[in-house]
Amino acid sequence: MTHAVEIKDLHKSFGSLEVLKGVDFTVDEGQVVCVIGPSGSGKSTLLRCVNLLEQPTKGKVTVGGVELTDPDVDIDAARRRLGMVFQSFNLFPHMTVLQNVMIAQRRVLKRGKQEAERIARENLDKVGVGAKCDAYPPQLSGGQQQRVAIARALAMDPALMLFDEPTSALDPELVGDVLSVMRKLAQDGMTMLVVTHEMSFAREVADRVVFMDGGVIVEEGPPGQVIGDPQHARTRTFLRRVLDPTYSGDDDTSETADADGGRAATPGSAGG
Ligand SMILES: Nc1ncnc2c1ncn2[C@@H]1O[C@H](COP(=O)(O)OP(=O)(O)OP(=O)(O)O)[C@@H](O)[C@H]1O
Ligand SMILES: [Mg+2]
């Protein structure tokens, strides 16, 4: 069976900094895979390698049976099958919501104006901002803007949706609206690869959770296992920090010493 996404021995370096150190995993059609892990562990880089916003240093990325890392691939055609939603919404501020959702359909997919408008309206309705078609992005809340960005991606008929911390720039009371749109997409069978710190979302919606640290996958499995009963000390320490921001992380140090080597000196040690 072909996987929706297949990543094999993926490496990515920036100069002498090796950020991805051999990552392997697959996403099956209709599955939701959530990627979690500490800041700097390579989650965004991984996502950016999946749509070739970054060129992998080594390894294979295959999406929908098409190897994107093949030098002969038509990368624009392949990328058209991928929807990407970032932390920042990247909407054009001088265009209406409707125009924002139409422009790539017109330019990239060469859809006619009427068809593009119909599809834009359908998708804006679907994410609950159909009433905002004629508004400009700066007139919308962050949660509404992010839902417009999701509608814009959906309007391109993606085979796979990539989300990179789609709710982390939002005020807490707006997070729920965006997560419920994503939950609905998952229920409708969309294949999704989601980098998130929303553990309750991952627990409820993900088919699999991948925990990354230091450019490798430390563990992966069903959410009940990785979040509910993590096997590795690094995963446990990370989850404790995410679930309890006041946690200082002083236990499990035997396995996290490397990852935490750059942390600031303890208070009081700077006297003199
Ligand atoms: N274009 C780049 N040039 C140089 N270094 C980069 C580049 N992009 C990322 N890095 C480095 O790669 C490492 C991993 O970054 P990445 O953004 O993938 O982490 P992340 O897991 O998404 O973190 P966060 O949770 O903070 O978003 C970091 O050390 C970062 O500084
Ligand atoms: Mg990131």
From TrEMBL:
Location of this chain's protein in the cell: Cell membrane
Keywords, ordered alphabetically: Amino-acid transport, ATP-binding, Cell membrane, Membrane, Nucleotide-binding, Transport
Acidic residues compositional bias, start-end: 249-258
UniProt-listed SMART domains: AAA
GO MF entries: ATP binding; ATP hydrolysis activity; ATPase-coupled polar amino acid-transporter activity
Membrane topology designation: Peripheral membrane protein
GO cellular component, one term: plasma membrane
PROSITE patterns: ABC_TRANSPORTER_1 (PS00211), ABC_TRANSPORTER_2 (PS50893)
Residue segments, region Disordered: 243-272
Pfam families: ABC_tran
EC number: 7.4.2.1
Known catalytic reactions: a polar amino acid(out) + ATP + H2O = a polar amino acid(in) + ADP + phosphate + H(+)
ABC transporter domain location: 5-239
Family: Belongs to the ABC transporter superfamily.
PANTHER family recorded: AMINO ACID IMPORT ATP-BINDING PROTEIN, GLUTAMATE_ASPARTATE IMPORT ATP-BINDING PROTEIN GLTL
Protein name: ABC-type polar-amino-acid transporter
Protein source organism: Sphaerisporangium album
